[in-house]
Amino acid sequence: MTSFKTWQVRAYNTAAESENKIHDDRVARRYGYKSALVPGVTVFSYLTHPAVVTWGEDWLDRGYAKIALKQPFYDDERVQVEPKADGPSSYTCELKNPQGEVCASGTAAVRDLPESPSLRNDPPAPEAWEKPRATRETLERLRKEGLGAVRVPWRGEAPGDRYTRVLDDMPSLVRTDQRAFAHPGFVLSLANRALMANVTLGPWIHVESEIQNFSRLALGRTVIIESAVADLFESNGHEFADLEVRMFLKEGPPLMTAKHRVIYLLRES
Asked: Which of 22, 107, 162, 260 could link 203 by a cystine bridge, Cβ 3.0 to 4.6 Å?
């Protein structure tokens, strides 16, 4: 059975300039947080870092992972990544803040691929339009009508090319200075792009994801993202959306499938 080492990293707010202002100190404090939140897809990269280190290209091509984000990490905060083997090709993992609190947890594995998804050829989301506000009514309508597809090229541009401030702290397999492949958090971030292309959002939070890799994303390749609203619900004053997301390499194989949960409308503190 594979053994895994504990890994430490300084949390990096890769979305400080994002249109999602939950990654801005002033706005995050308005919602009761200490400061800007480190993106959930970046935290996902920390959870799957041991998978890339241990299984390399095999994980990029057929890796599985699941993460639940329980409370935020803040920029430059120490993150303790504690993977524990629970099978010959899998581990469970807890991510702890400096106070020892578990802020996120999940699993990662290499496994036989499930049936490959097929491209539906969904109509594209308009590139220049006045998007509707993300309300329950709007998302219920889009649940029936469908979300527009999105195309995103991967050019390896900062800060999306990294999940640490220093590229040397990432495995060479997913470092742009090595002309390698997109790291897991960037690929998962395309699920966020799909939602953002179809509705106008205020501050919002990614809280859970379950993914299956089918292939790796090389520099210069374009990804087609097709998505659908699977469920909508309210909890503790927050409005949640569950998305089903399928990504494909343009003129190529499937890239990733993801079940992606977000709070699209936050309760103000």
From this structure: 22
Q: CB count, 10 Å around CB of 62?
A: 18
Quick check: 71 and 101 in contact, CB under 8 A? yes
Residue 9, H or E segment: strand 7-10
- Tally of domains within the chain: 1
Distance CA 267, CA 205 (A): 11
pLDDT tens by residue, 66-78: 999 999 999 999 9
Residue 1 lies in a domain: no
Checking if the pLDDT of 268 tops 80, the result is no
CA distance linking residue 2 with residue 56, whole number of Å? 14
Report CA Rg, the chain.
Answer: 18
pLDDT (0 to 100) of residue 269: 67
Cross-strand bridge partners of residue 233 = 240
pLDDT digits (tens, 9 = 90+) for 91-131: 999 999 999 999 999 999 999 999 999 999 999 998 767 89
- Residues 116 and 254: beta-carbon distance below 8 Å: yes
Per-position b or e across 147-170, b if 16+ CB within 10 A of its CB: bbbbebebebeebbbbbbbebeeb
CA distance 249 to 116: 13
The CATH number of the domain holding residue 79 is: 3.10.129.110
